[in-house]
Design goal:
two-stranded antiparallel sheet, 343 residues
């Protein structure tokens, strides 16, 4: 059922930002129970691993979200595990979660983190740029009995339709590198704007958890393909001008995403107003971490005493990483995980 969403006074504190997005006369469509705050005319790709996401939503309503995933992605076991493996939410152990916490999750995908996060906090607002994915998150949470989750579709302009100081915690897990995909400006302009927006919607003392892949990750330094630059070898770890020249030569108007080094990301966070920043090494890699280790050299050395520690994917990465000084790990780890505070 399609309808329109008009901000009532009772919800003005939620869907309201500095430019009065949700004024008394502002209307937004609601489709399948999800308010849609999109500004672009196009839509993101509605196909994931050969499966139309609208078909996934319809099947989830018929047979349940878990059965729908198992049925439609039965030949994509890697993707199925990516969506259903609870170990992917291991980073939640780092976060200050309380029964009263108000949490914003940006880019929940198919709800793989949302469903693990919601039972631990007071409320979760999830905003997803893909409308079918937002609908699937809503359905899966409802079917899982998670009634403290509200889902919206938006963020294509890297702005957030929420009031200032609304949240105690913002979660941005492996989304930052992609957030400029629908933005009219450059990737960096989009990322800087999103950082400012996350700072704005956090209450004083609120936390931001941001994880992203590392521009100088060891896998790229060893010549692996970079998905953010259309599978170019070495990719993001090369000088930006080299990457831009390669894109022009192969007919690509821009990169698919943009990565940053440890120092570059730390600078961006500081400039956005996050005063206290603690970084972690996700070992062996960001997507399926075994553990998170603080990036100071003493913590790295202590973690390396554990023979069960996997320091990378594959024998070459593990061997090279184990030989590097502990102080270098944060600069060449697969990804960067940061817990930052709006002081």
């Amino acid at each position: 059922m399609n309808t329109t969403y008009q901000c009532p006074q009772t919800q003005a504190a939620l869907f309201l930002r500095g430019d009065a997005l949700c004024g008394s006369s502002t209307q937004y469509p609601v489709r399948a129970g999800v308010p849609v705050f999109l500004h672009r005319h196009g839509a993101p790709d509605d196909v994931l691993a050969g499966v139309k996401l609208t078909d996934l939503v319809a099947r989830a309503q018929e047979i349940g979200w878990q059965a729908a995933l198992e049925t439609l992605f039965k030949h994509e076991r890697g993707l199925l595990g990516y969506v259903t493996d609870p170990s992917r939410s291991r980073f939640l152990e780092l976060l200050p979660l309380h029964p009263q916490s108000r949490v914003l999750e940006i880019g929940p995908g198919l709800g793989q983190i949302t469903r693990q996060l919601a039972p631990r906090v007071g409320s979760v607002d999830a905003i997803e740029i893909s409308e079918p994915q937002a609908q699937f998150v809503r359905i899966s949470c409802e079917q899982s009995g998670l009634h403290n989750v509200s889902v919206a579709c938006g963020g294509d302009d890297c702005r957030l339709p929420y009031a200032d100081g609304r949240f105690d915690l913002v979660v941005l897990n492996l989304v930052f590198e992609w957030c400029g995909g629908s933005f009219a400006g450059t990737h960096e302009e989009a990322q800087r704007l999103l950082l400012r927006e996350m700072h704005r919607v956090l209450a004083p003392g609120g936390r931001l958890y941001l994880s992203t892949k590392n521009r100088y990750g060891l896998r790229l330094l060893l010549g692996r393909n970079d998905e953010h630059l259309y599978d170019m070898r070495f990719g993001s770890c090369l000088p930006r001008a080299v990457g831009e020249a390669w894109l022009r030569r192969h007919g690509h108007p821009r990169a698919r995403g943009q990565l940053y080094s440890y120092r570059e990301l730390d600078t961006l966070l500081a400039e956005a107003g996050f005063g206290t920043r603690q970084a972690f090494w996700a070992a062996p890699e960001m997507r399926n971490p075994d553990r998170f280790v603080p990036v100071d050299a003493a913590s790295i050395r202590a973690a390396r005493r554990d023979p069960a520690l996997r320091q990378g994917l594959g024998r070459i990465e593990q061997r090279v990483m184990s030989c590097l000084p502990a102080s270098w790990v944060k600069h060449v780890s697969h990804g960067l995980a940061v817990l930052a505070t709006r002081d």
